[in-house]
Inverse folding.
């Protein structure tokens, strides 16, 4: 068979069959668990004014400078397919007038995101994320609870084994200012050994050097100072409060002083759930506190914290795909039985049972289709059955068959 001319665009893929069931299971489980924590689901547009992301991610970030799908629409406005979900949620909080009442807002979201990057295992140009945000809470308990929700979701999916929470603190503004000065002094002494990109970052945002993937930079980063010695008393107390609450929630963690967020509105907690089961792309869930982001969107100061996780990566960690539902197949034999078969199949569906009806073919062909569908049972209605108001109910697992009054089929199959 010749290969079709039209293929999915590079970096995109179809979700069909088992892959879709994995995908749906991840989102459905996250939706259910987050609701137990009081999160309500929001859905924001998949494209926004480009400024929503350039403000939130920073003009010099790799996402903004290299990866965003941005274009001018017919009205001349610059719009961008969303590369992540937090910025849209913060924009929605502001533009819907929700910053002054009923805070904190606990928001869950799920949907497609878009980044122009090199496709690889578990990473696509159109990918999907779930996320939880707590907007309007300044207490360390909010950080711990949003992390606990993410851990609970992983437990509910059965993928918590091998997943490790790594946490760090970015401190408050005074802590970061002192830490930034220490980093500048350290990296300036070895500036000739830094990559060109990190030399630029040294002037603009030295914290981002800590996140460099360049081998030369990594060698220097290994000996760089950590923020712990530069924390103010208040920042140290906040970090201690997060760790105490995580202990009470029963969430295991290890501290990693190299986890950073380079933009100024990030503060205090930064965290990642990592695994060795996905090769080089080991982060499955990541987030932190972003106390200044809502203000960047034009709102009032609104302390917030949250995380996002890639659905594709989470689904790859599932031991097995959820089984496809096994239908009941209703098979009319003869034209006269078709009306009764239609009544029967709708009655089964109204009772909450997955039901199929064979469209054509003799009994043998329709039974073969039932077996291909993995059907649990077959309901056979012919002229004799129709005359008596019954159906032949065949258990396709046990191979047994019984006569059941048509009106009792839903109860019997349930």
């Amino acid at each position: 068979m010749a290969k079709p001319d039209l293929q999915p665009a590079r970096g995109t893929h179809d979700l069909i069959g088992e892959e879709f069931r994995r995908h749906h299971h991840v989102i459905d489980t996250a939706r259910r668990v987050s609701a137990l924590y009081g999160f309500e689901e929001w859905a924001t547009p998949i494209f926004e004014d480009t400024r929503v992301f350039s403000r939130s991610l920073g003009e010099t970030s790799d996402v903004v400078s290299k990866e965003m799908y941005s274009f001018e629409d017919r009205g001349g406005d610059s719009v961008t397919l969303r590369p992540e979900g937090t910025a849209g949620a913060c924009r929605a909080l502001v533009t819907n007038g929700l910053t002054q009442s009923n805070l904190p807002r606990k928001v869950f979201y799920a949907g497609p995101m878009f980044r122009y990057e090199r496709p690889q295992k578990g990473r696509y140009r159109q990918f999907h994320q779930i996320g939880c945000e707590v907007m309007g809470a300044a207490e360390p308990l909010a950080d711990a609870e949003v992390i606990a929700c993410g851990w609970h979701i992983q437990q509910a999916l059965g993928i918590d084994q091998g997943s490790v929470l790594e946490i760090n603190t970015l401190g408050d503004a005074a802590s970061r200012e002192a830490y930034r000065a220490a980093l500048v002094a350290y990296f300036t002494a070895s500036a000739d050994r830094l990559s060109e990109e990190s030399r630029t970052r040294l002037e603009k945002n030295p914290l981002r050097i800590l996140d460099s993937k360049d081998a030369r930079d990594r060698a220097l980063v290994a000996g760089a100072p950590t923020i712990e010695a530069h924390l103010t008393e208040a920042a140290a107390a906040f970090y201690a409060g997060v760790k105490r609450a995580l202990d009470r929630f029963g969430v295991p963690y290890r501290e990693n002083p190299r986890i950073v967020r380079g933009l100024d509105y990030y503060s205090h907690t930064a965290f990642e759930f990592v695994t060795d089961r996905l090769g080089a792309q080991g982060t499955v869930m990541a987030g932190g506190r972003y106390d200044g982001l809502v203000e960047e969107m034009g709102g009032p100061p609104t302390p917030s914290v949250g995380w996002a996780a890639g659905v594709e990566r989470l689904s790859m960690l599932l031991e097995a795909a959820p089984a496809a539902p096994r239908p009941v197949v209703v098979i009319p034999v003869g034209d006269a039985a078709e009306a009764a078969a239609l009544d029967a199949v709708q009655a089964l569906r109204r009772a909450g049972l997955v039901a199929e009806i064979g469209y054509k073919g003799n009994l043998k062909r329709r039974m073969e289709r039932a077996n291909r569908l993995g059907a649990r049972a077959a309901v056979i209605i012919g002229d004799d059955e129709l005359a008596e108001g019954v159906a032949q109910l065949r258990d396709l697992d046990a191979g047994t068959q019984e006569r059941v009054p048509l009106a009792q089929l839903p109860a019997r199959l349930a």
Summary: The mean pLDDT is 91. The chain has 15 helices and 16 strands. The two ends are 43 Å apart (CA to CA). The chain has two domains: 18-172+232-317, 328-413.
